[in-house]
């Protein structure tokens, strides 16, 4: 367990969901520091502020000092967290709408080991702000597309290639990996055909959908 005196150091790296360039604005970390990365993804349809704090502290989460980043709709921002103890890092994570600050959604504990990467996804369920977290899991396969799907609504995901595979993805849950041989004409969310031709074969991706449309495609690393 991380003690309350733990100091969490921040290093900020921002990238667009289209895979644009990134820049590290943090200072050099101690070579003994352990580090985890969280990619904050906003698919809530409005600007969202994200907050992160030590889960073992009693401080209020929604303090300005705990603000990790802000994301406009369909934006992805990455934040790195470093610490110097041998134990896993336990964090509490929150999302709050930027404009009214009246809607919040919390994860009371996200526990990560050194070098792990996580997703923190803001989304809406019947206009209610939701926040979901999970660890990233790269599953690359040469010349193929490997995908996991997170959906705002229950939806049927189908891949039509040399074999037809279908999976029912429940609202707010993340599917297991599926494999695509080609970028176009193979993937369907419900009845909607989805093209992944802007993505690179041989890599694995998290795809976020509202049940029909592709909202965000993010590479899993």
Core attributes:
five-stranded mixed β-sheet, 221 residues, mainly beta, globular, 0% helix
Topology record:
Elements: E1 9-15, E2 34-42, E3 48-54, E4 67-71, E5 76-83, E6 89-97, E7 104-112, E8 117-125, E9 128-135, E10 145-151, E11 155-160, E12 164-169, E13 178-180, E14 187-189, E15 192-194, E16 204-209, E17 214-219
Parallel strand pairs: 2-8, 10-16
Antiparallel strand pairs: 1-5, 2-5, 3-4, 3-6, 6-7, 8-9, 10-13, 11-12, 11-14, 14-15, 16-17
Structure class: mainly beta
Overall 3D shape: globular
Rg over CA atoms, rounded to whole Å, is 18 Å
Query: So how many helices?
Result: 0
The total strand number stands at 17
Mean pLDDT across residues: 87
Main beta-sheet strand count, sense and barrel state: 5 strands, mixed
The amount of beta strand, in percent, is over 45%
N-to-C SSE series? EEEEEEEEEEEEEEEEE
Looking across the biggest beta sheet, what order are the strands in? 1-5-2-8-9
């Amino acid at each position: 367990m991380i003690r309350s005196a733990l100091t969490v150091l921040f290093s900020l790296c921002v990238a667009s969901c289209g895979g644009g360039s990134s820049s590290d604005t943090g200072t050099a970390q101690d070579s003994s520091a352990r580090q985890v990365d969280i990619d904050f993804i906003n698919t809530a349809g409005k600007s969202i502020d994200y907050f992160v704090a030590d889960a073992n502290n009693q401080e209020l989460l929604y303090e300005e000092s705990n603000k990790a980043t802000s994301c406009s709709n369909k934006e992805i921002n990455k934040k790195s967290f470093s610490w110097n103890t041998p134990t896993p890092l336990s964090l509490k994570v929150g999302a709050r709408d930027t404009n009214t600050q009246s809607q919040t959604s919390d994860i009371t504990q996200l526990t990560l080991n050194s070098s792990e990467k996580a997703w923190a996804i803001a989304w809406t369920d019947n206009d209610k702000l939701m926040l979901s977290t999970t660890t990233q899991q790269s599953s690359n396969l040469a010349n193929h597309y490997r995908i996991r799907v997170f959906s705002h609504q229950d939806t049927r995901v189908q891949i039509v290639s040399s074999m037809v595979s279908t999976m029912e993805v429940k609202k707010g849950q993340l599917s297991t990996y599926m494999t695509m041989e080609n970028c176009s004409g193979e993937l369907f969310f419900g009845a909607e055909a989805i093209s992944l031709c802007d993505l690179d074969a041989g890599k694995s991706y998290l795809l976020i959908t509202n049940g029909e449309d592709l909202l965000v495609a993010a590479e899993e690393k």
